[in-house]
Every structure is written in C-alpha cells, then in structure tokens.
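Changelog-adjacent note: as of this version, every example in the card shows the full chain rather than a window. The one below runs 100 residues end to end.
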Amino acid sequence: MKRRDKMKELRNMELSELQARLEELEEELFRLRFQSVVEDIKSPSLVRQKRRDIARIKTVIREGELAGKFPPHALRSRVRPKVSSSSPAAKAAEQKEETK
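Full-length structure tokens:
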C-alpha cells in the first residue's frame, strides 16, 4: 500500500480507532525490540516500519486536533497502565487520597 493511501485511510478513521491502532502498533514495536535483543529477527526493517506507522498515526491525530476534528490533547488522553501498588508513586497517591 502506498504512503498516500495509508494516510487517506488513517484520516478517515475515528479517534478511538486511531488510538486503538496506535496502542497495537506500540505493543508490536515493543515485542519486536525485545525480540531483537533476545534473538535475531527475520526482518529488521519491521522495527523501522512500525516506528513510521506510529508517527503517521500521531501526525493524523495532531492534524485532527488542529482542525478541530478531535479534542485537544487527544494523544495524552489515552488510557495509561495503572501504577503498581508497591511503587512509591502509588503509595504517595494513596496517601494523598486519604488526606482528602
């Protein structure tokens, strides 16, 4: 698929679809990077391709923000993993909630 076609396809997607695809690609990139450290991967160019696909999606989301199609800070509003309860940050957050 040509780059223009990929961008057209991405621009026609909804924000939730873009965010889901972004999370999926980031997970794939993580696995590829991990695999490249542990063993040789079949195609090293896949890492570069995933990075570029992630950049394309982030670009489309930012374009949507600037055009008013998506809410501001749409990239930052993605669901983040919860902090482990044994971490210092989690303990500080619990203490902060208790004092309220």
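Structural remarks: The chain has one domain: 3-80.
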